[in-house]
Amino acid sequence: MIDTVIVNAKIVTPRDIVFGAIAIDGGRIELIGPEWQMPKSREVIDAKERFVIPGIVDPHVHYGLTPAPGGSFAEACKRDWKPDAIGAAFGGITTVMPMLMSAGSYVPVTKELIGWANENSATDFALTVIVHKQQHRDDMQELFDSGVTSFKHFFNAFQAEEGEQMQLAPVDESGLFRSLEKIRDLGAPAIAMVHAEDCGLYSAFIARQRAKGRDGLKAWNDARPPFTESVRIELGARLAYEARAPLYFVHLSNQESIETVQRYKARGARLAAEAVIHTLTVSCEQEEEVGIWAKFVPPLRPWSEIHNMWRGIRGGVIDCIATDHCTYMLEDKTLGQDKHRGSIWEIPPGISNVQEHLLPVLWTDGVLTGRISLNELVHLTAENAARLFGLYPRKGAIIAGADADLVIVDDTTWHVIDDKFYHGKDTRFSIYMGRRVTGRPHLTMLRGKTILKDGRYVGSFEDGKHVEARLGQFSARGLADSTAVAE
């Protein structure tokens, strides 16, 4: 007798949607097929003809952005991780990939956080480290051997005062190239990640906008115009091509960046590209609705660029949709609860509560509008990230042998996003306040254990475990070439 069978399910597989059942034992998927083929089980879960998708793999998460008492990043990360991983479970995310910051060696930091999170995380997790000095490159082999294989670089955003405020440090062309050579030599599944913005350019434009007395989201967009991103995408892509190393660009925001990635993919560069949900669904032209809560880097763009982003998804240039979730308290983002009170120039960038609204917002604005199919949703939020970061086939797909990370989606109930919608660290604010959405999880399962059901968290903090990266998308062949951006 096995542990669990899910019946009456519309199962979204990597290539199809089938009606049937899923047999689960020992935390893994044993069998997918018609109900009559299922072995006897201790538990039967009736999906009631709802869609079942793989647990989401979120490769872009920031915990610990604001200092903790004593100043340790690890303590700040723990403070945010514990409550916000529960929010992730409410959003159908079963694997998170927090990004770590350290002025010194990452080896003790990763050991400390892996040990802590194995007893305190509501979801499974893998780790990314942010590289900004030679010591971090020297650590790469030891980190790789421990299953930490993704290495992020700010190229060359967050210099000087801005970097000090965000506790971040950039890399220049030489530093990125040295990292790429090291990652190439490590082999799959090692991969570079790059946040591409030109600090020298946008710093000058910020000074101009402030001198004019401008403020707000449109001023923020004009201060970091699209080409300040795309020039660094171009250079980063060329460096990856010359180094013959895999590189993942985070949060693209404009057509020129998409076209650059598409061109280098066609040349054989081992590139992947990410969009985040807010750059697809919220515009700088919505200042009245979202206020300065929507400060983000790169900035949220006009609707014309959002249309270009969806075209990049349909054309296969963009491989993943992630959250870039940043844990903030309301007081970090505005003065009081007024999203219009304060200056865009004085608050930190980043969007909160994203892990919980990613799925329903993407379901509502992507699937229901016909922009993407259900299969594409699964590819963009689960399978592709698992492949790229060395977690597939354990994560990212409903196939025999995979971890039973599953989400039963309720796509018939509609919700209005308000302060009762969220369950993470600070539920009081969201750039989606007032929006109607559907597609929230009815049930979230992590390795065969139900951790969320009927709007209630029923898991425990020790459910989540570290997932070591072992295989990668670029270990055999690159992502499919993109030949043209769809019209």
General description of the model:
- The protein is α/β, with parallel strands linked by helices and 487 residues long.
- It has two domains: 2-53 and 401-411 and 439-457, Roll (Urease, subunit C, domain 1); 55-398, Metal-dependent hydrolases (TIM Barrel), CATH 3.20.20.
- The chain is 34% helix and 22% strand.
- It has 15 helices and 20 strands.
- Strands 5, 6, 7, 8, 9, 10, 11, 12, 13 and 14 form a ten-stranded parallel sheet that branches. An eight-stranded mixed sheet has the order 3-2-1-4-15-18-19-20. Strands 16-17 form a two-stranded antiparallel ribbon.
- α9 (255-266) links the parallel β11 (247-249) and β12.
- α5 crosses α8 (226-243) and α8 (226-243) packs parallel to α9.
- The longest helix is centred in the first third of the chain and has 18 residues, at 73-90.
- The chain is globular.
- The protein starts with a strand and ends in a 30-residue tail after the last strand.
Topology:
Blueprint lengths: L1 E11 L4 E9 L2 E6 L7 E14 L1 E7 L10 H18 L2 E8 L5 H12 L6 E2 L2 E3 L3 H12 L4 E6 L4 H7 L6 H14 L4 E6 L2 H13 L5 H7 L2 H18 L3 E3 L5 H12 L4 E6 H5 L5 H4 L12 H12 L5 E3 L2 E2 L3 H4 L20 H14 L6 H15 L17 E5 L4 E2 L19 E2 L2 E7 L2 E5 L2 E2 L30
Parallel strand pairs: 1-4, 5-6, 5-14, 6-7, 6-8, 8-9, 9-10, 10-11, 11-12, 12-13
Antiparallel strand pairs: 1-2, 2-3, 4-15, 15-18, 16-17, 18-19, 19-20
Helix pairs in contact: 1-2, 3-5, 5-8, 6-7, 8-9
